[in-house]
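Troubleshooting: if your tokenizer reports a length mismatch, compare against these two reference records.
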Amino acid sequence: MKIKFLLPFFVIALIANGCFTNFQTAKTVDGTSLTVGWQRVQREDHWVDYYVFMPRFGRAARRNRFGYDIGIRAVLIYNPEKKGNPLGPTLLEDFKLQFPKNRIADLAIDTEFWGIFPMNLSVLLSRDLWGRITPYCEFEATGILLNLQWEEDWTIYMPSLIYGLELKLSRNSSIYIEGERWLREGLEKNLLFGVAFRRHISRKR
């Protein structure tokens, strides 16, 4: 009953804000998974669609050890404003390190790579509730690692706050809903609605 009461408020908050997001909590899990998602972002007076395909492999954190998660995010971008060639692919590698588990919440740091170049740095926080729902948030410093390499100025980056819900359908299947808000003044505020389905293909017992 608590889940049914709180879920509509979470969904309304997520739809009201947004940009590009990652579909992940702070929690790492043993084995291999596949995430397939769709996102729609408002760019000035038109929409851009992102189709996400993300295989991942990980090891779960324990109370006395770190966990890790390695993934490759393939994104197909559809932008109707680009006449003649509206489709554009993007490929990013991702590494997440979860701190040893505790009773309060799951905590992790995440790094995205553009080819061989480290690009974004994030801090993730999440907590499982009632065994069925996991609210999570992610503070992402977009471009900060790339600017340190090329610009040598750590202040040139785009900070944002990602927040979402993982809804567990079964032990091995989940649905994700996410939103994002830019935290720096002057950045364009985009509107996002994003959903994804995650399935564990192989999982240690």
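Reference record two:
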Amino acid sequence: MTQIIKSIFGRKSRFIALFIEIVIVTVIGWIIIEPVAINTTTALIPAGYDYDRLVMLTFDYLSSESPEYDKSAKGMDAKELFGNLLRMIRERQGVEKATYSFYQSFEMNGRSSSGIVADSTYTEKGIEDIGFSMTCIEYMPNTDFFSTFGIKDVNGNAFQEPEMNESTYIISQCVAKALFPDSTAIGKEVYPPSEWRPYAMTAVGVVADMPYNKGDGRIGTYYIARDWEGWTRPAGIMMRLGEGVNPRAFIDKLTADLSQYRSGNMYLTHPVYMSDQRDEIFAPKQRELTQKWMIVGFFLINVLLGVAGTFYVQCKTRIPDAGVMRAFGAPRRRVIWSIVGEALVTTILGWLIGSIIYLIYLKYQGFPMETDAYPIIKHLRPVWHDTKLGRYSIIGGIILLLLLVTSALGAWLPARKVGRVPIVDSLRDE
């Protein structure tokens, strides 16, 4: 360490230039990496259901002007039409289970949410805003919806579908904890009666927490049963493939056979692998996240080139020092690591000053905390970026680690050249 300190003070001008560069990159790193780390964490939240075994089909109808239109089927009951297609799909080889899918369901374009307020006891725990919203998921009861998706209960077991009616909900775990912190949610009132709904909505089941779409983060959800009397109709059919069935090969073969799946003037179309559907819905956020990671990579490359360039420029001046060390018995490895150590010390000092500068700036900004969840949800499902200590210590550690790795590599490349110079040549000018 003494040798490193002497070397730094012996080359003050180059040390200062590299130090300033590290400080600037650290500040920029804080600005860039904080949202990148948070958004990446949000994107990596598990789906909670078996999307890698699901294939979705969409319902469509023949136009009355189509030559294949069947006029005799015009008055057929909708339940019968839908039911025929679901039965046909369930009988197809490779399909383990199948259910109806709705526009308000996982990774679909439709969406609606309901506002609700958590139990008032949470205000005593320091949570001032206890309001939140929960996203609606529609399904057809008694059609294997939960087993088809592979949805779990709060203990990680397969969820057993309860009996449902127009006044019942199935809610996710965080919703249950928010509304009923000290008791079970089963049989409890989620919403009281109102002017437009004369009956209360009651919870009859609790499932594990799951994001509605990839990248949604931590949200509350509730499941509502639909019937054939309402205005809502299924959007299509969701199939759960059997173990070992290749989804891509299954879709290719199904696409070739789609003409067989017709009921009256209704037919099935557009088979989509659920994994692809998740990626498509997440695509806009993925592009934004990729751009931010590219910017992070750009600045890290600048650090690498800056450190490597600084030490390459100093190679000739360091050769005599290396010769002296080698002459006194220092192994080549020690010569190399003395140069790398100098780069690491410079990086740590630059990171420390840059971090202090940025945290002072954050203090004057009131420490804005970008998040993916309501305060009550954060309390019930905490993650590392919910608190200032957790957020800034982990992000600071990530920045330091990236800078250290980059700086070490940037210094090691020229240090190898210095360490390989023969002792006689290195001492020639001494």
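Descriptive notes for reference record two:
- Residues 169 and 203 are 5 Å apart (CA to CA).
- The two ends are 24 Å apart (CA to CA).
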